[in-house]
Amino acid sequence: MFSNIAAYKFAPLTDLGPLRGRLLVFCKGIGLRGSILLSPEGINLFVAGSPDAVEKLAVQLRAIPGLETLELKISPSDHQPFNRMLVRLKKEIIAFGVEGIEPGIRTSPKLPPKVLKQWLDEGRPVTLLDTRNGYEVKLGTFRNALSIGVNQFREFPAAVRQLPEAMKEQPIVMFCTGGIRCEKAGPFMEREGFKNIFQLEGGILKYFEECGSAHYDGECFVFDQRVGVDPSLRETGSDQCFACLVPLTEEEQKDPRFVQGVSCPHCHRTSEQQMADTVTKRHKAIRRAITPLPGSAPYDNFRPINVPEEFDGRTLAEALHGVVPHISIEDWRRDCGNGLIVDLPRNPAAADRVVRSGERFFRKYPDVVEPDVNGGIRILHEDAALIVVNKPAPLPMHAAGRFNRNTLQHILTTAFHPEKPRPAHRLDANTTGVLVLTRTRQFASKVQPQFAKGEVRKVYLVRVQGSPMTDEFACDAPISAEPGEVGSREIDEDNGLPSRTEFHVLKRNADGTTLLEARPLTGRTNQIRVHLWHLGLPVVGEAVYLAGGKLGDVQTLAVGAPPLCLHSWKITFRHPISREMVTFEAPVPEWADRNDH
């Protein structure tokens, strides 16, 4: 049999560090477990052990100056309700956060339990105010008591200020588990203008000890593994949810939604509800990351340039010209002279400086303001391995050209901090739709190879200018590996990479355009756009691959411009954890609605 003791006392305590050490050694030495809180304002403790060990602790505590009259509330249990022994130093023994409340000097009048019972027996008009947290009240409280309605004691002052003004004239008896919270709550309410405040001496536990269950319904929540005790101070069959802290009756513990350490009927969420909660939080984080757009305020951008092996021992200007040959060596020298080329510590680097292979320099672009983008990224799915988004447009995926911070990668890295989501594949800046990212390098190593090997099934929606001759057709034209003007790719019959895209007509529109379903079986850059351009069916809204075999000079469309009508609709691949095939789908954009044209 174990004795469980609860006690507190407001009294000035000093030399807390050494006192903490002595008490910890003493309690462990006699087999006690629980917690003791020490602060300059007093002591608060919940401890359990053998009756003899508990009595020894009582003697030890009452020998401390200021604690000579410390009273213990004792209840039995047939098991040890605590896992270990802790002695902690705190600013307050009960967190309240209001200055000037000093129970060691003054408290509200205390009402003995038997006097309260007599008042209730007589039907005396009195308001019983439960100062405990909402989840504690759930297990039981005094009949017709008013719960203050807080989730933690620090919320008590704000809750008091919401009470009706008329209550300030009424007699109020406040109560809590053992009385400690009322020691601060009473003086605070008096300071707020309440004129007839009493606190139940010793709280519910002392009332149980002296008066049993009279005028009380249920049991009393206690802060140990017993969870609840009945009016005879015996442990009940109640449990507590690890996730939401709500105490659970024996009947609630039979509910299939109660999973020990995971959930209970009060906090259980279906997978759909959990996903909705997660998505809502992510969208808020994304909004913060794009408000304002990260590249909208002027900043200094530093683009890295690594020295190739063949320029080892050459000058910096020669190496820079070798890496970026379309900029003349004279221009590189001028940039160095203007302090725009810096080394790794960000110090200006001279044009004639001798460099070594692998050395890194940076080209400084001062006061950069990036073009606007559509940052409205929407989360379609999240799990332990994957993040699936509906990518908006225009939005570049990575830093390049005029874009560095106004990119999908930068925005998601900010929104998911400290995580760094890794795209498993690419979409053009002007292409919308489903995009898969992995949460770690390990998961990336299981997903990215599926794209490289052509094992991923991708379905796009595309609206083109013109009308194909047949409803089913394909293109096998090889696509160049190297970019041409404005980063474009072209058909290269001699040296191009093998490529294949299959198309299916979904709707032929009256305006001469056609809605297609496109299935790329290979993953070349701009593959769908290049193949349709080659077939004389350029994509509606296209800025690069224009009608008549012409090339445009714009890579990324401006916000508000007519959209590129190319949408990553569905994607199917093997999940890196379950190894089962999964499919994700992005909502169909307005231009692809088959009923609108």
What does this structure look like?
The longest helix has 20 residues, at 271-290. The mean pLDDT is 93. Helix 9 (271-290) packs across helix 12. The protein is of the alpha+beta class. Helix content is 23%, strand content 25%. It has 4 domains: 2-89, 2-Layer Sandwich (Alpha-Beta Plaits); 110-236, Rhodanese-like domain (Oxidized Rhodanese, domain 1, 3-Layer(aba) Sandwich), CATH 3.40.250.10; 299-368, RNA-binding S4 domain (Structural Genomics Hypothetical 15.5 Kd Protein In mrcA-pckA Intergenic Region, Chain A, Roll); 375-597, Pseudouridine synthase (2-Layer Sandwich), CATH 3.30.2350.
User: Averaging pLDDT over every residue, what do you get?
Assistant: 93
> How many individual domains?
4
CATH domain topology of the largest domain: Pseudouridine synthase
Please work out how many helical segments DSSP would assign. Answer: 14
The number of strands is 29
The CATH level-2 architecture of the largest domain is identified as 2-Layer Sandwich
Enumerate the spans where pLDDT stays under 50 for 5 or more consecutive residues: none
**Briefly, what CATH class of the largest domain?**
Alpha Beta
| Cα-to-Cα separation, first versus last residue | 81 Å
What would you call the structural class? alpha+beta
Name the helicity range: 10-25%
CATH homologous superfamily classification of the largest domain: Pseudouridine synthase
Largest beta-sheet details: 10 strands, mixed
